[in-house]
Amino acid sequence: MADKAVTIRTRKFMANRLLSRKQFIIDKLARMYEIKDPNAIFVFKSRTHCGGGKSTGFGLIYGFVENAKKYEPKYRLIRNGLDTKVEKSRKQLKERKSRAKKICGVKKTKVGDATEAGKKEIFSWEF
């Protein structure tokens, strides 16, 4: 059975053009403005209008990728593949949440400072 070749048959193969829409816009902008490196183009907030046929959005074009890395928010760099996302463990997120719960009041303190200061500092109220 393992020696025979495998045959795969497909029916109703459909291509979704919407999946490559963002890349199509980036390629079109690169040709229009003669951009050599398409990684310096950031397209975001694309919205389709009711009825179709028209979409609007925002785009930023940088001269160099280094400038884009300097000024763009980290989440956009991650979306464009210029940065990597740091995966935090579930336990770290839960511990941070529980530490933040212990802080009450309007006094500006860091999460770590409240546990060191003692319970008097944790429940301080200012009006």
TrEMBL record:
UniProt-listed Gene3D superfamilies: 3.30.70.3370
Keywords from the UniProt entry: Ribonucleoprotein, Ribosomal protein
Protein name stated in the entry: 40S ribosomal protein S24
Molecular-function GO terms, alphabetical: mRNA binding; structural constituent of ribosome
Cellular component aspect of the GO annotation: ribonucleoprotein complex; ribosome
Origin species: Coffea canephora
PANTHER family: 40S RIBOSOMAL PROTEIN S24 (PTHR10496)
Record-linked InterPro entries: eRP_eS24_sf (IPR053709), Ribosomal_eS24 (IPR001976), Ribosomal_uL23/eL15/eS24_sf (IPR012678)
Top-rank taxon: Eukaryota
An example Gene Ontology biological process: translation
Pfam families listed in its UniProt record: Ribosomal_S24e (PF01282)
UniProt keyword Ribonucleoprotein, yes or no: yes
